[in-house]
Every structure is written in structure tokens, then in C-alpha cells.
Amino acid sequence: MQTSGLASKIFTADEVLSPYVYVFYAAFIIAFIFTPLMRMIAIYFNVIDRPDQKRKLHKSPIAYLGGVAVFLGWLAGLAISQKLQLHRIEPGWPTDFLVIKFSIVLGAAVIVMLGLWDDIYKLTPGIKIAGQIFAAALLLYDGVGTTCLGPILIPISQKLTVYTGLPPISIGIIQFFSSFLVVAVIVGCCNASNLMDGVDGLCGGVTAIIAAGFLFVAVNLAMFGGGLHTNADALRIVMGLALLGAVLGFVPYNFNPASIFMGDTGSMFLGFSCGTMIILMAEERPKWFLAAMVMFALPVLDTSLAFARRWVGGRPLFSADSQHFHHQLQDRGFTVKQTVLIEYGLAFLFALLGVSMVFLRTRYAGALYMVIFGSIIVAAYKMGMVHEQKRIDKLKRRKSDRVAPATGEMLPPATTTQPEITPSRSAEFRA
Q1: Which residues contact 194 (CB under 8 A, 6 or more apart)?
Q2: Which parts of the chain sit beneath pLDDT 50?
């Protein structure tokens, strides 16, 4: 909601956050209540994930459909926001309430349906990517992110015009590159979150930390942005609160040992929500886009390293493997809980880095961004995360671990009892 001739105004954090905090309440309560209900439905209809002792290392079958509960919580948060007044109201405005573009809800619904179909019937990577592109196209059709690269391209064009005499950049070129960015962000975030969902509580907890970082930036924008774009400011705050509340309502059930999984339904939805938030940040200034990307860095880095490994190994980029960051931590001897807590700590550090960029000028924030990611890429290469580890190396390491330190004799291999899967639905699930 843009207005001309309106005086700028600075708000406190309480003034911009308190009108919308009920969004968090609604999202958390609905997700918290519906998660066990969706577990019951998943068990009844046999929508479950069975262990295979290869990539799926949980000990007993676990129900899916947790992602549906997260989506319903998020949707409830957005719904209640329609009854909450904006933090700034001026005479003559067409509405005193938040306006949410329907494409955001419709795109999220498309992603959820796509993930739900994949959880039940399985889809090829190509079909999933096509669905994600369609969801991004819905956003673009409704005007979300169509000029998100304007704050970057226009200043560059102005400098080129001064020094080279080139004509100013046209709105068509800005829209073309902005559309490409929107599709890349949505598809990238959906797949990054999906690939991270490999350990109990990992994807949900990391997303909660990212959402908290997004919310901080959104509140900061609303406080010091002058109040001239009240609807955009409110939309970012509401989406941050809805995402944070919905994820926190689900994580207690998903933390190790998990009683329910979010499945592709939840992981792709979380990626879509984060991607939409990143696009909304990009519409303001490049600095906010960089800050949001730093906060989402952990899923992006994990996915980038996975693609690099597969490319170096000569395998298809979307082929499954068991060498993601959380797998490598477990191979180094960390338990599931320790692995998750380590990644929570990394996500928190990235969130702090993103928050710190809020207080820097854009040129300094960009330099910090390059230094951080350059250092991480080099460190990952040195740690061997870019090259695939041979399966025989892992077997040798496990074999050497069974050698008695005093005598050098081989210890008997540890026996593991595989859970017997019976037709009974209620007996094979965790309480």
C-alpha cells in the first residue's frame, strides 16, 4: 500500500509487532493440535515411511502428513490476520486491514498438493520441479516479485548511463530478470528444504530459526522504513509469524525420537514459504535480500554441496545419496540428537550473521556475504564434502572400530534387531 504525500514515521518494535502477534498464536495452536490428528489419519490410511537401513535409518515405521498440519497452522495464521488492523492507519486508505495476494496462498496449496501426492504415490524429480515452477509462476502472475531486482539493476543502470552513455534499463528487462530470480528462488528453496529433511527435527528446527531471523528483519523494516509501505511491512511480519508459529507447533512431535514426519509435503512447503519471504525482502533493497539469503544459507550450502558431489562423481544431480551434511556428521560418530543440535547451532550463527547485515551499508553487506560463502566453500572442499566417499572406506572404518585396542583381535560385530513389521497398524508405530 503506497501513498503519496504521506509523512514518514518511525515505530517501536512493540507498535509494529503487537497488532499481529495473534497470528503466531493461531498458527502454533492449529499446528500443535492437528499434528497428532494427522498422525492418526496417516496411520489409518497407511501413509507411512518404513525404514530401509540405507537412507532411512529410523528404527520403526513413522507416519507422514505432518506437513499438512504445518500448512494448516500457517493458513490459520494468515486467516486471522485478515481481522487484525494494520499498525498504521491513515484517513482515506482503502482498507484498515492487511491485504494478502491470493497467489501466495494458492502457490503454497499447489506445493502442498504436490508434496502430498509424492508422499503417497511418489513423483519423479522432473514433475516436482515443474510443479514448483508453476507455483512460482502464480506469484509472478499476481505481481509478487516481478520487479524484485529493480533495487539492484536500476542503480547499476544509472551509473552505466553516466559513465558510458547507455540508455537506462527498461522495465521489461527488469521484469525478465526478476521473473528468473523468482523461479530460481522458489525452486531452489523448495529443493533445499526437501534435501535437508533427513533427520528427526532437523528441517523444522532449522526453518524455525530462519523464520525468527526473517521476522527480525521484517520488524526492523517496519520500524525504520517510514511507514510508507504499511501493507508490505505488515505482510512480511505476518508471514514470518505464521511460519514460525506453525513450525514450532510441529517440531515437538518431530524431534528425535520422532512420532511423525513432515514428508515432502512439509519440507517443500517450508521451502516455498522461505522463498516467498526472500522475494518480499528483495523487493525492498539488495541488503535485505542478502540478509535473507545468509539466514537461509545452511539449506542452500547443503544442497549446493550435494549437487557438486554428484556432478564430480558423474551421477545425476537429483539422484539420492546418503552423504548430506547430517549424514557426514553421523558418520563421524555424532548421534542423531547431537547432529541436529550442531546444525541448529550453525543455523543460529547464520541467522546472527544475517541480522548483523541489517546494520551495515549494502556495499559492506555484499562484501561480508562473499567472504562468508567463499570461506565456507573452501572449508567444505578441504573437509572432503565435495568428493563422494566410497562405501568401502566406510566399511573399513567400521571394521577397524571393532578391533580390540589391547590385543588387536577383532571384536564380534554388534547385533541389531530389526523391527518386525506386521499388518497391525497401531502396534508398529511409536507412541
Answers
A1: 264, 267, 268, 271
A2: 1-2, 391-431
